[in-house]
Amino acid sequence: MNDISQKAEILLSSSKPVPKTYVPKLGKGDVKDKFEAMQRAREERNQRRSRDEKQRRKEQYIREREWNRRKQEIKEMLASDDEEEVSSKVEKAYVPKLTGTVKGRFAEMEKQRQEEQRKRTEEERRRRIEQDMLEKRKIQRELAKRAEQKCATALSFR
Predict the structure, then answer these.
(1) Are 147 and 74 in contact (CB under 8 A)?
(2) Which of 95, 119, 121, 129 shows the shortest CA–CA distance to 109?
(3) 47-66 b/e with 16+ CB inside 10 Å = b?
(4) What distance in Å separates the CA atoms of residue 80 and residue 58, rounded to the nearest whole number?
């Protein structure tokens, strides 16, 4: 009897799932021991099932929290891009002071031409930089959207 109960304990404590129809053979007329063995097997199955379910819920919670964090980062990045839009100011043109002599006027006009040339080159450089920044933001937005879509599809498969 002791040998049979040891075998039953080994079977019940093994990591393999015990079939529901399994009843250890202990001996004829020993209904109480059969009932207790089935009760223990049932309790162990329930404990294992609840432990697995708890682990699954925990992993799902962690995945959702990570997804929400990524989503929030992407939203913040997109919102910060909208706030950084540069408003261009209209600058007043330089009006040179007229001098009385022709030589003075030509010198003044030459200075004005050089100043306008410098402003044009600076404005062109500023426009190029602004265009580059806009392209970079556009690329970042696309990458953020792709990352968001990739995360969404990855979560939908789980």
Answers:
(1) yes
(2) 95
(3) eeeeeeeeeeeeeeeeeeee
(4) 33
Q: How many CA atoms does the CB half-sphere of 117 hold within 13 Å?
A: 6
What does the pLDDT look like over 90-127, one tens digit per residue?
556 666 665 566 777 788 889 999 999 999 999 999 99
CB proximity list for 148: less than 8 A, separation 6 or greater: 70, 71, 74
Dist CA 141 CA 131 (whole Å): 15
DSSP states of 73-139 as a string?
A: HHHHHHHHHHHTPPPPPPPPPP-PPP-SSHHHHHHHHHHHHHHHHHHHHHHHHHHHHHHHHHHHHHH
Torsion angle of the four alpha carbons 125, 131, 132, 138, in this order, in degrees rounded to the nearest 10:
170
